[in-house]
Design a protein that fits this description.
There is one protein chain. The chain is mostly helical. It contains 20 helices and two strands. The chain has a two-stranded antiparallel ribbon with strand order 1-2. A hairpin with a 5-residue loop joins strand 1 and strand 2. The two termini are about 55 Å apart.
Length: about 375
């Protein structure tokens, strides 16, 4: 009986195959020193409160304090996050990550006064500072983003309250991460050689690229069969996460969580709607492609197409495919139908797909296609 292949524990991997996090901190001791340094600097936060209106020099000093402690905090958080990601079952680094996450909430709460205080000043004063102090120029874009976000910035006390609740808002995501990456156990499946393989997130990706369809099917059903057992738990974590986003959006006077998410990068909702509309408009091309794959690969199920999204499913593409029911003298254009669909025929993507499958048909020994417009082949 062959031994089951398993991914090695992280501790058993050669060092050359692991992340080099010493580029961030030399070791956990250096992380702890940086942690204590931030804790000490955090005590100065209140010293800058109320100073933004005292002139460009005071404004610059307060701004640079906020940015400096934020950069140090980001470095600390990234290190702890990556250490936790190395092995999500390692309780030492679970604790390190939790410690850093807690500090993020503390710092966010301590400097939450900055945006409300900045926005309490009139635009003439703010941009006057930039005219008087050339060294502020590198911060112009940052301040512009904050000023443009004025309708969604809350009073200082409310900003501090939301910032302090950061860990609570992120709890559902953390629960999912631990469950998904540490606690779930996936079944053993067989590869194309009949060898037993312990299914995992990493192994799943490899198996789904296997040329043996039965291996891919076993991997897919094995992975998602486990997820299905916890569907109620995952549904609850997702629901809680959605509620958190909706609450924060409402608290900041956005019309929706979607609007709030897009506003971080100043993207209008119309851009999102246009993207979805354009994708949906061109889905028929994807459906045609999947139908072609189904017939070319001679499989019964490749895409469960609805009647509305099916394109001439009764028309065979090639002759000479023993595993499929084909009709002689049929052509690939039955999928793209340039005579019936001139828009699709003129689409560069349609032409590229057509040519690709034309060459693939030749390589597989299928008869040459007939009645194909030269524009689709050249």
């Amino acid at each position: 009986m062959s031994e089951t292949k398993q991914l090695p524990d992280r501790a058993d991997l050669p060092e050359a195959l692991t992340w080099d996090l010493t580029k961030i901190y030399a070791d956990d001791g250096a992380f702890e020193e940086a942690f204590q340094e931030i804790v000490a600097e955090l005590k100065q936060a209140d010293d800058f409160k109320g100073t933004l209106s005292q002139g460009p020099a005071a404004f610059k000093e307060a701004l640079e304090y906020v940015l400096a402690i934020s950069r140090k905090l980001e470095k600390l958080y990234v290190y702890s996050h990556l250490k936790n990601d190395q092995d999500t079952a390692n309780t030492t680094y679970q604790g390190l990550y939790a410690k850093a996450s807690n500090l993020v909430a503390q710092v966010s709460e301590a400097i939450a006064w900055f945006d409300p205080e900045l926005l309490s000043m009139d635009d003439a004063t703010i941009w006057g500072y930039f005219d008087q102090e050339p060294e502020l120029a590198i911060y112009r874009h940052l301040i512009e983003k904050t000023v443009n976000n004025r309708p969604h910035v809350l009073p200082a006390e409310q900003e501090a309250l939301l910032a302090g609740a950061g860990e609570i808002f992120g709890a559902s995501g953390n629960i999912f991460s631990v469950l998904n990456n540490a606690d779930l156990e996936f079944p053993i499946v067989e590869d194309e050689n009949g060898e037993k393989v312990q299914l995992s997130h990493g192994v799943y990706g490899q198996l789904m690229e296997n040329t043996d369809r039965s291996v891919r099917e076993a991997a897919f059903k094995g992975l998602y069969g486990v997820y299905e057992q916890f569907r109620n738990t995952f549904a609850q974590t997702l629901s809680t996460n959605i509620k958190a986003h909706n609450f924060k959006a409402k608290a900041r006077h956005y019309e929706s969580a979607r609007q709030a998410a897009l506003s971080a990068n100043h993207i209008p909702e119309s851009v999102y709607d246009t993207l979805v509309a354009v994708v949906n408009e061109h889905l028929p091309l994807l459906h045609r492609y999947m139908e072609l794959r189904k017939r070319l690969l001679a499989v019964d199920v490749c895409l469960e197409a609805t009647k509305e999204n099916s394109y001439r499913q009764d028309t065979s593409l090639f002759v000479g495919q023993s595993a499929s029911k084909t009709k002689p003298n049929t052509v690939l254009q039955s999928l793209f139908c340039p005579q019936e669909d001139p828009v699709a025929a003129a689409n560069p993507a349609s032409k590229l797909l057509f040519r690709s499958f034309h060459l693939l048909a030749i390589r597989r020994g299928a008869p040459l296609l007939t009645n194909v417009p030269p524009s689709l082949l050249h």
